[in-house]
Amino acid sequence: MITALLAIDVGGSNSRATLVDLAGNCLGKGRSRGGNPGSNPPDLAAAAIISAAEAAVSDAGVDLSIAVALLAMAGPRVNAMQPQIEAAFRALGLSGPLVFSGDLNALLPSVAAATDGYCVVCGTGAGAVRIRNGEVDGVTDAAGWLLGDLGSGYWLGHHAAIAVTAALEGRGPRTALTEAVLDALSIPTTSTAVVDGRPMPLRLLIDAIYAMRPIELAKFAPLVIANGQDAVAAELLAQSERYLLADFQQVFAADIAGPVVLGGGIIEHLTGLPSAISEVMRAAGHVPDIRLSGDGSVGAAVLALRHQGVTVDEAMLATITASVKARVAKSSPSD
Known about the structure:
Pfam families: BcrAD_BadFG. This protein is an alpha/beta fold.
């Protein structure tokens, strides 16, 4: 029987489970939909996490003794989920503890063996963390769509919908986002009918938005990016950059020189953010070391190894990264 560690990178859009041995070799991979309990009902979030773990064990195809299961999870802690997850993991071979960690903690070890640094993320959610001695030492935002996540994909999508509503009512500027959002919702823009005192497209927009789960507004974020030359969209992206820069400034400590890891599907489109962060670093006398995040499941695997007392240096990080990449390629040869 092989001793393995189970690491799961749990986000709002997908959950990715990785099984590694104590040398960092990937034994199995599994994937399911989002398991963030802030974006999904707890029972569905737990089911997604369990499904990803089951897929990883199936992919491994050997008898395993799982020494630890570590969840690098976005969103709030929901204690009601833990018994369901733990029971399922015990059935899969978990003999050790179930450990929870923030998903932002996995960003730094996804690309660096350093145990001090920063992570700035802008995906469905947004925020910044300071890592000291391998542990989260400070957090700004990353509080979820209801309490923050300012500048995030959710925030961009939400404010795109607000801007379109204002434009259709005539109390806000015209914007290319109007046609983009209405088209995404299959709402015709040519109707001149009036319903309850509102233009038909606006009435249909309101109905469509309130039929969605709030977090689903994040699907409009790519429309903001695609229409970045539009004045309204450009200002939303600029405000997102300002929020993320402010998050970084709040967690920045002069005695930690980096690296700064940028993660999330939105952040690469905030093109002014790296230079703005670099200026903060230079002003403190540091040479900026800014990197795009790697595979979050690699970072989660590193956290699981460290939990077991394994020192992960640059060589082992390279082994983990290459092994996970090879396993993904083997499991999905058509990708």
